[in-house]
Amino acid sequence: MGMCLDFEGCGFDNRENARFCAHCGIPVRGALLKGRYEIQSLQGKDRGTVTLQARDLQFAQSVIIRALIPKETSPLERESFLQDAELAASLSANVYDPGSIRVIDYGQDGPMTFLVKAEVKAPQEAQPLFVQRQGARLRDDIFLALPDEEEEATQMRLAVPSVATVPPQPLPTAEPPDWLEQGNQAYEYGRYENALEAYELATQYNVVSIDAWSGKGATLLHLGRAEEALIAYDHAISLNPHDPELWTSRANVLHELHQYNEEMKCYDQALSFDPDYVYAWSGRGMALAEQNQPEEALLAFDKALLLDPRQSTVWQAMGDTLYNLTRYEEALIAIDRALEIDDTHASLWDTKGNILRRLKKPEQAVPYHERALQLEPENPTPWFDKANDLRDLRRYAEALSGYDHALALDPTLAGAWYNRGNVLAALRMYEDALESYNHALKYDDGLLSAWYNRGSLLHELKRHQEALVAFDRALALDIHYIAAWNNKGLALFALGRLDEALAALDQATSFAPEEPDAWYNKAVVLEKLGRKQEAITCQEWAHSLDQQASQAEA
Q: CA-CA distances (angstroms) from residue 106 to 31, 61, 81?
């Protein structure tokens, strides 16, 4: 694999023969831009641009290439860059003083937009090594060395043989296209249909080409044809069954096919051939995390990071896993490590903000969500998360604006509708809150708290029959939802259905005998039913629970 030249900012390991980094888009070492400029090293990086050291193969001289980082710049910025480059090339076209710097070329190649700068040299130093002419063929012997003694022989003529002495020449035969190389290039440019055609031809011309079968598998996976991708990887593995990279790639396909047990077997196979193959460990960890085996996932992430501590995505996955385990302090450390390696991902800033909010520090969380929005202003998730910070800070008007921004970008975001309803309820705008809960349940009718909150608002608005429907929906999702049993009892009591109200409150007190509210409510219903002694007993027990709670707090 070809490591990205931006070791600190990216450090991505690319497929063999890649010209450009699949993660950040800059060229890898040895790549040729426009078939002429051979990339050698990264000289610097600043605000969406990189400076690269390269070799101009046509004039055998060192050049500097200034290029835009594809993933950090917009089409408008690239167009402006090219206009500036054209102007710079025009202004420096007449610069001939040795030692001066001039722009000698500019343009686009693949995802890169760039210009080339070179030092002006003395004329004899800048002669081209070769000149290509259409229809011409170069011969190694076309320039003959002059004898040392014959300095006066300043001109050279090539002998022209007579027709009779010209031996018959075979007709030139065209070399077959390098289909593998064409497939690799199309894949790097994201032209997957073209890449697939080339890889298929490559496998026909060379049925034992592991790279062609592997490339075909990767391309089919990008095209959403996972079953066919699996067949291609199986063929590649049959040619080289001990390659951990192929087994790991096969695992990725099985993940898309939801064949998780087989996926794990592939990671085991990869690690049996190379116990230090970092991508098998990281892939294994992510698969275990998705299968709700977080502790095992963390062990795999630890192993991956022990082998390569510069893997930003693994630190992020570890942080997410720790976050789901509510181990927020540890999650914060992992996310900070990921940000030290690569701070260009909005999801990292967003996750750090969420951790801080969970640590009851919403005022510290806000700037991190704002940073995420600077990187991805059209992403609804940071808008939603920032709104949650503002809700916790009781800045309700700003929170509503944040939820509205998120919903403008994704109207199906059930969580945003639900939290928007909570804020409106806190502002006592009950009808508007109900409308938000209705939208939330339209997109996710399994949202338990939305059913409960909807029922509570309907009860508050004295729409008790509708409230009962909502509480029953909540209890269908969770039979042990104590608050729903309690409020269902209150709604039934308001409707005069005392026996049913008592039955609901009995459920609440049986599931949570330490909760005083249900006991108080039960006492009220018993008294209404004329069962005064039982009512007094319930009331005394509720009072005792309140005292115990007060002492525990003290």
A: 16, 17, 10
Q: Copy the structure tokens of residue 64.
A: 């500097």
Q: Which residues pair with 20 in a beta bridge?
A: 27
Domains, the chain, with CATH or none: 2-117 (3.30.200.20), 457-553 (1.25.40.10)
β-pair type (32-33, 61-68): unpaired
Give the residue with greater pLDDT, 242 vs 91.
242
Strands (E) across 221-349 are located at none
| Interatomic CA distance for residues 386 and 369, integer angstroms | 6
* DSSP secondary structure string for all residues of 299-316: HHHHHHHHH-TT-HHHHH
Kind and range of the H or E run holding 116: strand 112-119
pLDDT digits (tens, 9 = 90+) for 509-545: 999 999 999 999 999 999 999 999 999 999 999 999 9
Token readout for 110 is 């693949």
Pairing of strands 61-68, 49-56: antiparallel
**Backbone angles phi and psi of 401, in degrees to 5:** -60, -40
Q: Which helix (H) or strand (E) holds 493?
A: helix 482-494
Q: Edge-to-edge, what's the strand order for the sheet holding 37-46? A: 32-33, 37-46, 49-56, 61-68, 112-119, 101-109
Higher pLDDT, 67 or 74: 67
In the predicted structure, residue 326 carries a pLDDT above the cut 90: yes
* pTM higher than 0.70: no
Distances from the Cα of 447 to the Cα of 283, 311, 414, 454, angstroms = 31, 36, 8, 11
Q: Three-class SS of residue 390?
A: helix
